[in-house]
Amino acid sequence: MSVARTRIVEDASAARVHDGADGRLALAGRWTADQGASVEVAARRVAEAASGRAIVVDLAPIERLDTLGAWVLERTRAEIEAAGGRLSYAGATPEYRILLGEMSLREPEASSAEPMGRIHGALDGLGRRVVGAGQDIVTGVAFLGEVVAACGRVAARPRTFRTSAFVNQIEQVALRGAPIIVLISFLVGGIVAQQGIFQLQRFGAQTFVVNLIGLLILRELGVLLTSIMVAGRSGSAFTAEIGSMRMREEVDALRVMGLDPVEVLIVPRILALVVGLPMLTLIGALSALLGGGITAMLYGGLTLDQFLARLQAAVGLHHVFVGLIKAPFMALVIGIIATIEGFAVEGSAESLGRHVTASVVKSIFMVIVLDGLFAVFFAAIDF
Hints:
With 383 residues, the protein is of the alpha/beta class. The protein has helices at 2-10, 36-50, 67-82, 94-104, 118-156, 163-175, 178-200, 209-247, 250-256, 261-299, 304-314, 317-343, 349-380, and strands spanning 16-19, 25-31, 54-58, 62-65, 86-90.
């Protein structure tokens, strides 16, 4: 710290504060990004000099003021006013007034707090995450209400429904997504069957692997695997598409033209997910059963007739419905989260990448939570 202060004193262009005439404070030196350390030191002196009273800061002696200097001054002014004081500028050139005016439109950030202890920091981080999760739930419920209201308006005026956009999204979600879901489900079905046979052979009950894969895939694994893959593929695509439109201000352009972005952009995408995910779930479950069946015949010594007969005896139609009933709800959750994250994108590629990642992570987490809730519900009603 002493080295930094020495450097500031020795640098003639460093930001400084002098006592001026009539009790004013006169700022001098360069209030620019390359003098960031001295700017912060000088700003703290201005804040200390205010101490709950009105002060006037003379900007005329400043050699140069850039965005950082103006932002620090506006942040200091906000801190002084929050403490009950008042800061006003004098001697500002037109360029300085424009720069300070632009910075005043931004929400001032709080100054860095004192370092917290490890336990205090952990509790602070936990509290912030809990508050953030609560805000996400409230935002999701509010956005779901907007989507339901938009669907109602579209149902009342069928001509406003974007049929071509809906068909295009069905193609993107279901048709183009089917090959990868079929392949992954086939492989997972085979792996589950193989591991099941290895474990059941110890008890001489390897034939029960058909019951295992039949119930597991149709009730849980089929819809869960499909939903996770759709969240990673289609959900991330929704977030990226809407986020890119936000960055190019196309969403604002829709509002200027009198169009509702929820009706134009969101309703076709979410309806495509709600229709497409059950279809993909059924295809994925059949593919997983095929993979499991082939593995059972190779490793378990079952014939095709034995496999089909045991599968028919082990699973009923209601097991198929258990998986299919979950699919539209999971599609709705994936669509809501993906579009919320898309609308939250700001004007940078970094923001877009951050929200796409958040969309996938949140969607997968909520899909697993929803599957657990459905499992408890179906067990409670003995379905």
